[in-house]
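Researcher: Good morning. I'm working through a list of sequences from a screen, and I'd like to move beyond sequence-only analysis. For each chain I'm collecting a predicted structure so we can compare shapes side by side. This is the next one on the list. No need for commentary yet; just the structure.
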Amino acid sequence: MNKENILGIDVSTLDYDSLVNAINEKIKSNEKMKIIAVNPEKIIMAQKDSSLKELINSSTYQIPDGIGVVLASKLSKGNIQTRVTGIGMMEKLLELANKEEYNIFLYGAKEEVVKEAKEKISETYPDLKITGYINGYCKDNNKIIDEINKSNAQILFVALGSPRQELWIRENAERLNVNVFQGVGGSFDVFSGRVKRAPVIFQKTGLEWFYRLLSQPSRAKRQLALPRFLYEVIKNKTT
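Model: Good morning. Structure tokens for this chain:
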């Protein structure tokens, strides 16, 4: 199944290209699939939250979004060789949609953010068919469902924050005529240009978390999940 288990959580071992190829085949077969980003913080949370654990493991692809997950795999002599970030996966799916002429829908964030994200993405991919968008503050769920279905989108990006976005996807997937569901957190802020992504050197070395910590010291408490996660992995390996 191209997955390995880390502290009870399934994680995909596929790299970007393999994931995109597999997803493209499933779209052409009109299958539905859910993509969820997995990082050390989320794995630690899932140890105490069985519903979160089930939510992650029931997804089609659990991408290793976090250098800690890659390190955990290496410690266990696993097959995860590289990170697959949420925003990186979104970029790859935009490229795929542009090439294969798939329809895209953006749901989430503030009105001005999602609108600006749509405009900037369209500048990068002039031929990409973004057939609809709606902000994350709309309270009428039936309207949201109708708008997405009217768009004939094959790929839906949901930016509501985790795990809210994944819960929304789980609750509404059967009502939606969409093939690919991906929760993308704050990615619309990045695509809109309102938030800068870490410099390439931080991305390539897996130190985006450190850059975010330097930019937002308030994240320090969240980053404590990484050493705790690696401790649990090592402890589990030796027992």
